Amino acid sequence: MKLRSQSGFTLVELLVAIVVGSIIVIAAFTMLDRAVVLTGKTTDRVDSTQRGRIALDVITRHLRSQVCPAAAGSAIESGGPRSITFWAFFRTKPFAPQRYTIAWNPNTQAIEETVDNGQGTAVVSKRTLITGARTPTPLFTYYAYPTDASAYVEPSVDLLGATGTSLSADDAKRVAMIEVHFTAVPSRAESNGTTPQESTEYDDQVYSRTADPNAVAGARNPSC
């Protein structure tokens, strides 16, 4: 009598199949994990870029709208490495400028803007321009035109005071250009104090509205 055929895998074949299958599964999960990580980094980069661009646009637009509150006044009331107080006006008439203060809050690491009508008046509005802002260098750096206008041809500016110091009352009247610099971090890194690679650095220069670098007589310091 013939024995029935007993076909199947040998132990060696089964072990080889398990090893090959395991390698394929591990490779698939590795690729999936890598894709998730890259997707997260891309999302973080887009997040920091969008939030930083919006904040920088508001800061520079408001700084460009500086006006003198009075004929004998100054557009910039005070300025420091991480805060500036100035007068601005965005309408046509009647002329009623308001005082703006843009400052970096070290406790929340956010750049905030406060609006009022002058010293001792109630706050009109207060808002956060961006959260998770890092300022390893000064948020604001101030420049003025050289006092000797004949010493240069192209509009050039000199640094006012040492980097990271507050403006004196006289220097505040001479500010012709303000450099804005900060780093926007992704939302997920706002509270942990880190600055991941997906952060976006922003740097821009704003000429004072009352100082025309293209004036016919040559660049001059602000005048009210």
Description:
By secondary structure, the chain is an alpha+beta fold. The protein has one domain (43-207). The chain is built from two helices and ten strands. The longest helix is centred in the N-terminal third of the chain and has 53 residues, at 11-63. It is elongated.
Give short descriptive properties of this protein.
alpha+beta; 5-stranded antiparallel beta sheet; 2 helices; 224 residues
What's the topology here?
Blueprint lengths: L10 H53 L12 E5 L2 E6 L9 E8 L4 E7 L6 E8 L2 E2 L5 E5 L13 E2 L9 H6 L2 E8 L15 E8 L17
Antiparallel strand pairs: 1-2, 2-3, 3-4, 4-5, 6-9, 7-8, 7-9, 9-10
Count the helices. How many?
A: 2
Strand-residue fraction?
25-35%
- The poorly predicted ranges are none
What order do the strands of the largest sheet run in, or round the barrel if closed? 1-2-3-4-5
Which structural category do the helix and sheet elements fall into?
A: alpha+beta
Largest sheet report: 5 strands, antiparallel
Helix content: 25-40%
Q: Count all strands and give the number.
A: 10
Oligomer: single chain
| Terminal CA distance | 118 Å
Shape: elongated
Q: Radius of gyration in whole Å, from Cα? A: 29 Å
Could you report the average pLDDT, rounded to the nearest whole number? 84
Number of separate domains: 1
Order of helices and strands: HEEEEEEEEHEE
